Amino acid sequence: MRIKDDIKQEALFKATVKLVNEIGFVSSSVSKIANEANVSPATLYVYYKNKEDLLVSTYIDIKQKFSRAVLKNFGNNLPIRDILRNVWFSMFKYASRHPEYFKFTEQFANSPYNSLVNKEEVEKYFDPMINMMQKGIEQKIIKDVNVDLLMAFMFYPIMGLSNARSCKNFEINDDNIETAFTMAWDAIKL
Amino acid sequence: MRIKDDIKQEALFKATVKLVNEIGFVSSSVSKIANEANVSPATLYVYYKNKEDLLVSTYIDIKQKFSRAVLKNFGNNLPIRDILRNVWFSMFKYASRHPEYFKFTEQFANSPYNSLVNKEEVEKYFDPMINMMQKGIEQKIIKDVNVDLLMAFMFYPIMGLSNARSCKNFEINDDNIETAFTMAWDAIKL
Amino acid sequence: MRIKDDIKQEALFKATVKLVNEIGFVSSSVSKIANEANVSPATLYVYYKNKEDLLVSTYIDIKQKFSRAVLKNFGNNLPIRDILRNVWFSMFKYASRHPEYFKFTEQFANSPYNSLVNKEEVEKYFDPMINMMQKGIEQKIIKDVNVDLLMAFMFYPIMGLSNARSCKNFEINDDNIETAFTMAWDAIKL
Amino acid sequence: MRIKDDIKQEALFKATVKLVNEIGFVSSSVSKIANEANVSPATLYVYYKNKEDLLVSTYIDIKQKFSRAVLKNFGNNLPIRDILRNVWFSMFKYASRHPEYFKFTEQFANSPYNSLVNKEEVEKYFDPMINMMQKGIEQKIIKDVNVDLLMAFMFYPIMGLSNARSCKNFEINDDNIETAFTMAWDAIKL
DNA sequence: GATGAATGAGTGTTCATTCAT
DNA sequence: CATGAATGAACACTCATTCAT
After folding, report:
1. Chain A residue with Cα closest to B27
2. What is the pLDDT of residue C1?
3. What is the pLDDT of residues C23-61, one digit of tens each?
4. What is the average per-residue pLDDT within A141-167?
């Protein structure tokens, strides 16, 4: 028998991300995706149970890649501000290196498919961040407010700024990221 | 000749928002929307050139309603911080009173339809905000950074916090909004 | 607006029966049926909810036509044997005039679709028959056995004999039908 | 060279019958059948030329099993009526012991596949029955009518009565079979 | 012999849009 | 203006079968 071909699965992943970026969620049909991956539509169903599975799997894949990249130099002993700064930089770097992942993620998160992913599984990747925030609160370094609030000021601005569509005048370079982080830190620090 | 029926147009607007909220962009077909509005699919084409026109118009409509609500008590002579605070509150209030508009907006903005709207037309509603920011910079009240940056810290956190999906533990009430605004202000103030 | 066209529905009915006869239930796809009826597959869905609805409706239609034809000269005052004989003749005549209805019916009844029809609705057409049988039992003309048994000997032989496939040597003419009825009557009479 | 595996063939036979019974002819795909038999779809093609071959072979298999069971105590010297009675009982017993064979047979016989089986080969199993009928005619015990007619009254009622679907009130037990046979005999006896 | 991967051709169904009234 | 009927094109998905191992 033939061996299941990782190349094909990878091609499908890439084709999915690419097409969703280019023509959007709505128009990204199974056959277009398969075509883009140089694979028969029927073959797609060897690797994924159905379209939903394809999209959800792709989303989770991206989230994993992202959290792995962002949190890799995390557990060290620097002061909280420096750790957050590192994370912030990693995120920006990753976002500007893989804007296509970001765009896919945004479309996915704003679609009904989003309700199909096991939130806890995805969110647990970010648990270290939350723990760090809590530690900061205890140490009276960070404002003692709802953690969701802290996260909102730490992450949502990044999403906005990384989105070329909505931020045309903001160039992503080290100086600007530094400035942006200062603002984020001002928002959450005590 | 009968006159185009505003009631029908309004029904179509509401049906579009409702359906996109309930079943998502992908599944919201013209005939379902027409059905929901108790109107024939053919009638929809009396009021809108095509599906794209329907969605784009609905989006612009929402953006207008929003900016009108937010900016209505804007041009007064309060200190900058108070004005921004008012705007911030208006936004939150509007967002929590019309979550369906927010959800529609998010789905739309993350779809290829978004590229079809005349950005300048939409953004001009927010020109007063930008002017205010610039005034704040001149007065050395607000950080002298790229305006996009200021806007990112003023608006994106709201989107995150208003989104019940991503912020389950953050209850929207006056105290919490006040706290959140303080953070936003800390981020941008000099 | 255009008027719904009874001719199209009739064409679909005929096309369904014809195709099921010619290529069988399994191969009779929606598009082939629509094609045969000179109608777009999409149009079929104007008249029927889905394939299941098409087949079930066609089946019920045939059953109705059949029972109407068979029972039309039923409620008269002839002796039971004569009434049954009339019915028997009507059935044979109908079956040989519309073999395509018979074949469709058989394929349908032996398919999983069969479980979707409301049996009671279909069977009520044959209630007069059952009542007659019961009257015959009371009058000591017909054997006092389970009605299902009586029906089995009254109807199943007809199905076999009407089926050109299984009965190649039995010519359907008045003499032969008479003979056959005599046998059926011998089976059930006391 | 390995030897074709009778166990696998048997498993495929059983899976075919089971699936056709459970989900019907239309939905019984090759891969589902292979799956049910715990065998790869490709393996199925080692044992059968194609799907048609699988179904036709299964049908012929069943017919053989059936005729073997029914005719096994046939060639003895009892009176015709007793022999027929034995056959009749055997049939009922077999039918109620193997309803899945019956259901498969009915679906198959009412499908276009049926035209693919060599009728003479199948029918020859029932030649002894036909010979017996002819002997009965010569001996003036059985009505001198077309043999197809005699067979229709001998067999079709059994099919109806064995079909749980169409005969809900007829319980299959020795007394009832006896009664039924009496009716069949009344139908054909002189 | 045995198999999972692979696929072109087809499935039933819905789509955005136009037509005829 | 208003509409249900009509449809070609596309949809997600499954099929029977073959391929490569």
Report:
1. A26
2. 64
3. 999 899 999 999 999 999 999 999 999 999 999 999 999
4. 86
Residue closest to sugar C1' of E14 by CA: C42
First to last CA, chain C: 63
Report the pLDDT averaged over residues A148-174: 83
| Contacts with B18 (C-beta within 8 Å, 6 or more apart), sequence order | B36, B100
The Å distance, CA of B35 to C1' of F7, is 20
Establish whether the CB of B29 is closer than 7 Å to any nucleic acid atom in strand E.
yes
pLDDT reported for residue C3: 72
Nucleotide nearest to C30 (CA to C1'): E12
pLDDT at C6 over 90: no
Decide if A33 contacts A16 (C-beta within 8 A).
yes
What's the whole-number mean pLDDT along residues A98-120?
89
The overall average pLDDT reported for chain D is 89
Contact status of C99 with chain D (Cβ, < 8 Å):
no
Taking the C-alpha atoms of D13, D15, D17 and D21 in order, what is their torsion angle to the nearest 10 degrees?
180
Of D103, D106, D152, the CB nearest to C160: D152
- Least Cα distance to A6 among A30, A39, A32, A33 occurs for A39
A116 lies within 8 A of chain B by CB: no
Instruction: List, in order of start, the domains of chain C with CATH numbers.
Output: 1-48 (1.10.10.60), 59-188 (1.10.357.10)
Query: Strand F: which nucleotides have any atom within 7 A of a protein Cβ?
Result: 1-21
Condensed to tens digits (0 to 9), the pLDDT of residues A14-64 reads 999 999 999 999 899 999 999 999 999 999 999 999 999 999 999 999 999
> Does the CB of B4 have a partner CB in chain A at under 8 Å?
no
CA of B22 to C1' of E3 (A): 45
Q: Quote the tokens at residue D84.
A: 């027929």
Q: Is C183 on the interface with D (CB under 8 A)?
A: yes
pTM here is 0.91
Decide: C and D in contact? Rule: 3+ Cβ pairs under 8 Å. yes
Inform me whether the C-beta atom of residue D120 falls under 8 Å from chain C C-beta atoms. no
C78 — phi, psi (to 5°)? -70, 165
At a CB cut-off of 8 Å and minimum separation 6, what does D152 contact?
C157, C160, C161, C167, C170, C180
Distances in Å between the Cα of D32 and the Cα atoms of A47, D17, D28, D76 are 18, 12, 6, 45
The separation, in Å, between residue C40 CA and nucleotide F3 C1' comes to 21
The residues near B114 (Cβ < 8 Å, ≥ 6 apart) are A165, B59, B108
Beta bridge partners of A189: A142
Distance CA D151, CA C159 (A): 12
Give the model confidence (pLDDT) of C116-159 as tens digits: 998 887 788 778 888 889 999 999 999 999 998 999 998 888 88
Instruction: Name the CA radius of gyration of chain C, rounded.
Output: 19
User: Taking chain B (190 residues) in consecutive chunks of 10 residues, what is each chunk's mean pLDDT?
Assistant: 73 96 92 95 95 95 89 80 90 89 90 86 81 91 93 88 76 89 94
For residues D51 and D30, is the Cβ–Cβ distance under 8 A?
yes
